[in-house]
Amino acid sequence: MRIGVITASIAFFLLARVTTIRGLYTAATFLAITSATVVTGLNGLASFEAAEGQRGEVLGRHRAWGQVGRTIGPLVFCTLYWWAGREVAYAVGAAGMVGVVGIVFSGLSVPAGTEIKKAVKVDGKGA
Fold it and tell me: How many beta carbons lie within 10 A of that of residue 18, not counting itself?
């Protein structure tokens, strides 16, 4: 998920300044990476936050808030795009994503039980 929010930031910065088709495809590639990592990562994290009997409720609420974001986000962004222009709209989006990067790197922790454990040598042999 961390890679995804970083690539979203990069994509928005590129879209604010893109002048070529190659630049547009590069930004689209970064957005594709974002889509592939963030959505699945957030769904996974939401499922880890719920108790066994509450998963349906928690995931349903998580997806409902995602729909709210997919509704409000384009309305706000398009308004800013038409009011202030492409450069300003994508620069504001990039700045917002930098804020999200800060939240993700400082606020998210690895869910219990999913940490990568190193092998411990016992009597000179791998465990």
Answer: 19
Neighbours of 80 (CB within 10 A): 16
Q: Is the pTM of this model over 0.70?
A: yes
Q: Which residues pair with 98 in a beta bridge?
A: none
Question: Amino acid letter at 11?
Answer: A
Ranges of H-type helices in the chain: 2-17, 21-48, 55-84, 86-107
Tell me the per-residue pLDDT of 55-91, one tens digit each, with 9 for 90 and over: 888 888 888 988 998 899 899 999 999 999 999 999 9
- Residue 16 bridge partners (DSSP): none
Decide if 56 contacts 20 (C-beta within 8 A). no
Extents of the domains making up the chain: 2-107
Q: How far apart are CA 41 and CA 50, in angstroms?
A: 15
> What Rg value do the Cα atoms of the chain yield, rounded?
19
CA-based nearest residue to 93, from 74, 110, 112, 111:
74
How many Cβ atoms sit within 10 Å of the Cβ of residue 50? 15
